[in-house]
Amino acid sequence: MQPHRNWMIHLFTTLAMLLVAIKASAADRPNILLIVSDDQGYNDLGQLGNGIITPALDRLANEGTRLTNFYVAWPACTPSRASLLTGRYPQRNGIYDMIRNEAPDYGHRYTPDQYAVTFERIGGMDEREVIIPAVLKRAGYKSGIYGKWDLGALRRMLPNSRGFDDFYGFVNTGIDYFTHERYGVPCMVRNLEPTEEDKGTYCTYLFQREALRFLDEHAGEEPFFLYVPFNAPHNSSSLDPKIRSSVQAPERFKAMYPPVESETRVTDRYRYGTPATVATPQARRRDYRAAVTCMDAAIGEMLDRLEAKQMLEDTIVVFFSDNGGSGGADNSPLRGHKAQTWEGGIRVPCIVRWTAGKIPAGAVNDEFLTSLELLPSFASAAGLEPPADIVLDGFDWWPTLRGESASPREEMFWKRRDQIGARVGQWKWVQMGKQGGLFNLANDMAETHDLSESRPQILAMVKDRYANWLREMEAAEPRGPFRDF
Description:
By secondary structure, the chain is an alpha/beta fold. Helices cover 31% and strands 18% of the residues.
C-alpha cells in the first residue's frame, strides 16, 4: 500500500502546485472595466469647476490619471465605438459612417415591415473584424457588455457573436430612456433575443443593475472584461419634439440642480411639424447634467462593489466619452462639438485608474493618446501579444501613462464625409466646409488663430501626411459595410 500512498501524496502535491500556479497566473491578469459615456463634453467633470455633479468620476480622477490630450477616432458614435473595440481606424475597419436611418429626422415612423429592411436594421460591422473581448478570451477572460452596442442588430453581428459572453442593452445609436424604443421601434436585446422585459424603467438603472450582477457572478472567479457603454447623456430618440429636444433624466437627479424658469417653449422652426413644443435651452442644460449625474451614480456603485470585493486596486478602470459633447454639453475651452472635426468633436475627457499597474494617482497626463490604444494596451496588461495577422493603429500606452516614456503617437487623422481633421505633432489642419485652417495646438487648443497663410510649409506638410494616410486606408484590405469591393 505504501507505493499507492506515495503516489496519492505526489498527485495531491502536484494538484496543489497547479492550483497555486493558476492563482498566480490569474493575479497577473488584471480585471478591466471600460466605461464609455455618450456625447459628454470635454469640460463636464465636476472637478473642473463648471457646476456639474460627478463625485464618482472625480474620485476616479483623484485615484487615477486624467488625460487631457485624448482623442477618439470619429466625431460621432458608431465609427468611434467600432474603432475603440478594434484598435483600427474607421476607414480600415469599415465603419466610417453611421449605421442609422435618416427618415425619423423628418418625422417618419417606420412600420415593422419597413424597418426590417432598413440599413439601421441590416447594417453592421464586418464579421472579420476582431474586437477586445475576442482577444482577451485567449487569456481566460469572461466578458460582458451592458448598454449601447451600435454595431449591428442582426444576430450574427450582436456582441455574443463577436466574443462577448453576456449582453443586455440596445443595438442602435439612441433610444427613449424609458420605452427603450428608437423612434417607436423596440431596441433592447438580451444576448441574441429581443426583449421588452424592462420597458418603463430608466435605462441607466438597468445597465447599472446588469453590470453589478456581472461583477457579483464573475469578480474573483476569473479575470473579466466589463464594458459599460452608457447612452447618457445622448439626446432622447423620440418623435415627440418635447422629448427629442432634450435628455431624459430621473426627477431626483434633476432636483440636484437649480430650477429653471420655463421647461418648454414653442418654436416655428422645427425639423418637422411646426409649430412644435420643445425644451428650453435652460431645461436641456439641466436635463443633460442630471443624466450625467445619474450615470455617475451608477459608476460609483460599480467602484464600490469592486472595492467591497477587494478587487478595485487590480482592476483597470478606463472612462471616456465616445465623442465630443452636444446639446447641453460644455466642451470649453475647445472649439466645436459632436459631428465636427474641430477639437470639440474629437478630443474628449478620459480617466485611467489602475493602482496595481502603477498608474499615478491624482495626475494629469497631456501626452498625445487615442482610443485606438485600448486593444493593444489591454492585451499587454493581460500578458498577450496583439493578433499578429491584424493591422492595428494603436500601441501599448502603459509606459506613457506611468511616465516612463513619451507617447509614440505623432499623428492622427479624421474624415467624416467632407469634413477633415489631421494632427501631426502639435499642428492641426481642419477642413469644415467653408471653415478651417491650420492651428498650433501647443498654444491654441481652442483653434482660434488660423496660421495657414503665415506657415504655408507646415500646412503643406500636414496635408501631405493626410494624403499619405488616405492612400494607406485605400490600400488596406477592404471591409464592409460601406466600402465597394
